[in-house]
Amino acid sequence: MPFDQFTAKFNKQYNVSEMSFRSRIYAHNLALISAHNDNAKSHGFTMAINQFADYTASEFKAILGVSKPNQRSFAGLTQVPAPIFHTKVSDLPSAVDWRNTANVVSPVKNQAQCGSCWAFATTETLESHAALSVDPPQMKILAPQQLVDCAPNPKKCGGTGGCEGSTAEIAYDYIASLGANGGMTEEKNMPYKGRDMTCSYNPTKTPPAATASGFVKLPENNYTALLNAIATLGPIAISVEADTWSFYGGGIFPANKCNLKNTDIDHAVQLVGYGTDAGKDYWIVRNSWGASWGEKGFIRIERSSDGLPCNKDTTPGDGSACPPFPSEVTVCGACGIIYDTCYPVGAKWL
Question: Which domains, from first to last, does the chain contain?
């Protein structure tokens, strides 16, 4: 795709000096994508031109915006103990995809150039669990902008809040703190702006539509617990290393394409299921980069039944948990996918 067609398709507008800079980045990334796709079969996945094709690697990483929380980071919040799962992995369904259950997974969202992935993962998972609180499931579209603007982050967990990063756990604590008469409002009442705004949430003018009483943080790096939770409870908010996903176009993203030397957890997303394709096990992850990215907004990631590989995140203070930071943490699964996982409890529509 020529650069002028790219700028038109993705509504890119630059001044004269930046146009030259962006065209060079685009040419570099286009060559990278083309070279990869020439051998896509050996890689196991394809790459595609998307809205990030004129971003530098550092610019792309800057919009990810999330957390590497550990258990001690959330002491005193509305965290409740994780359930004890007794079902063996072998007794769970061989495949689960919550997209196939009507009104459980809302349409793919787009965080734009704001590091608000944590707000989207929280919103999407609250939507799913509130939907599942009624039979048959019912869906309402909630407003991530409320979390961006209103969820406090005084301890600077996963960032400084808003577009500068936070965590799903912090967001669920904020929602629970609003009490029985408060909660998240619908998107139509507080449309997404993609930037930090003054908090305008008002239970009268922006009436709450959903709430939760707290959250469960599953045991870190526990494959069995995560598989049980996604199979039996519903979608799960997770944190991953996503700076290697920029040009993902389709297929099963392999563990060896993640950063193995430093699996830098930097993005929050929603896990919606798992399955197997041609003998390859995978997780199904919903992203917040719009439906034109990946497989209509989703990515399939390699899944190993032993929870491996396990690698080190050697920069846990980089958009990370609450200070003081450990020198490193162990994160398991492809791109650290089973390290930090949580979901709301007491979720319901109001």
Answer: 39-349 (3.90.70.10)
Annotated catalytic residue within 221, 267, 311, 322: 267
Instruction: Assess whether 258 carries a catalytic annotation.
Output: no
Q: Catalytic pick from 153, 287, 311, 332?
A: 287
- Catalytic: which of 50, 70, 114, 117? 117
CA distances from 29 to 25, 41, 49, 51, 190 (A): 6, 20, 8, 12, 36
The question of whether 267 is a catalytic residue gets the answer: yes
Mean pLDDT throughout 215-235? Answer: 96
**What is the model's pTM?**
0.93
Angle between helices 168-177 and 117-131 (to 10 degrees): 60
pLDDT digits (tens, 9 = 90+) for 66-117: 555 544 455 457 888 888 898 999 999 999 999 999 999 999 999 999 999 9
Please write the tens of the pLDDT for every residue from 195-204: 999 999 999 8
- Residues 67 and 322: their CA atoms lie apart, in Å, by 9
Q: Is 28 assigned a catalytic role?
A: no
